[in-house]
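Lab notebook page, bench 4
Experiment: in silico fold of construct C2
Operator: M.H.
Input chain length: 397 residues
Purpose: comparison with the prior construct
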Amino acid sequence: MWLMSSDASCLSRVVFPPLSRPSKRIRTSWSGVLFSLRKIDSNPCNEAIGRNKSVLTEAIGKPNSVGACSGEENSTIMSGGSFDIDAPRWDLTTFTGRLKHFFNITDFTTALLPDSRLDEAKALVESCRAGSVPPGTPEEQLHYAKKLYDSAFHPDTGDRMNIIGRMSFQVPGGMAITGCMLQFYRTVPAVVFWQWVNQSFNALVNYTNRNAASPITSNQIGVAYLTATTTALATAVGLNLYTKKAPPLVARWVPFAAVASANCVNIPMMRQQEILNGIAVTDENGNKLGHSKKAAVKGISQVVLSRITMAAPGMIILPIIMQRLEKYKFMQKITYLHGPLQVMLVGVFLVFMVPAACSLFPQNCSMAVSKLEPELRDSIRGRYGESVQHVYFNKGL
C-alpha cells in the first residue's frame, strides 16, 4: 500500500504485518490491530513518512488496554491493568464446565515439567493475585501459569504436591499399574504384588489430595494403608480362587472388584480425621463457620464414587475387548505384546475418564444448612440468621 505524503516528491510505503487467525476466545477490533511501518534510514523523506504514520495512528486508533471489568478478553495485559486469575474460565456449576476445567489441569504433560518451571508459574499467579501483573504479559501466559499452578500445588496449602500424587500423573501412573493388573491376574503371587503396588499408589494419591484443613497423623496413615491393602488383597485372592471354575471373563473382572472394594476402605480411612472431627465449612465468601462431620461424609462419598467411576470403563470394557482379540491367530502369536497393548488401551480410557470422573461433582461442594448437625446449624442461625442457607467445603479429589 503506497501513500502520498504532503511532500509530493516522496512516496512512503506502509507495510502491514500478516494477521493470524484470532482465537475463538479473543475478539478483535480495528482499535486493537497492531501495525508497523518499515523505516528506510537512507530515505530523505523520513520526515514525511513520520507524518503519514501519525495520520494512520489517529485514523486507526490506539490499542485497548485491559481492565479488571473489561467486556472483551484481549491477548495482552497492559500497564496498569488487572486480571482476576482465580476467576474460573468455565462455569464450574455445570458438568461441561468442570470437564473442560479438569481436562486442562489433569493434562499429563504438565507432570513432565521441572520444579523450577512450576515455581515460576506459582510466582506469576501470586503476583497476579497481588495486583502486580508485569505489563505486556500475554493473557494466555497467565492462563497457562494458572493451569500449572492448579495441576501441581495443593488448593488449600499452596504447597507443591509430590509428582506421583498429582491428578496430572493419574494417566501415566494409572495406565501402567492397571494394565499390569489386567494382564497378570491368573496367579496368586502376581495378584498380590500388583494389588499391593496399586494400593500404595492410591494411598499416596489420596493423601496428596486430602483436605489439608484436617491433618492426619503418621499412625493413621499407616493404619489406612494397611487396611486398604489387606482389603484389596483379600478380595482379589478370594475372588481369584472362587472364579477358577467360572467363565474366563469373570476372572478378568476380579481386579476391578478388588480396586472398587479397596477404594471404599482406603479413602475413608486415609481421611478419617475429617469423619471423626468434621471438615471445615465456610459461607460463600470464604468465612469459616465451623466443622461438620456430615459434610465430610458427603464429600468423601463423592470422592469414592468418582474414583470407582474413573477405573470402571477401562477395567470392565477392556477385558471384554482383550478376550475377543485373543481369539485371533495373530494375537496368539504375539502374546508378549498383550501386556503393553493393555497398558496403552488403559491409557486411552484414562485420558478421558480422569477428567470425567473428577467432574462428576463440584470440588467446592455445598450443603444446605438445614442438613448440618443440630449444634452447628443452631450456631450458624444464631450468628447469621437466615442469610446463610448453604455452607461450602473442599471435598478433595
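Observations: Residues 1-74 have pLDDT under 50 and may be disordered. The CA atoms of residues 183 and 339 lie 6 Å apart.
Next step: discuss at group meeting.
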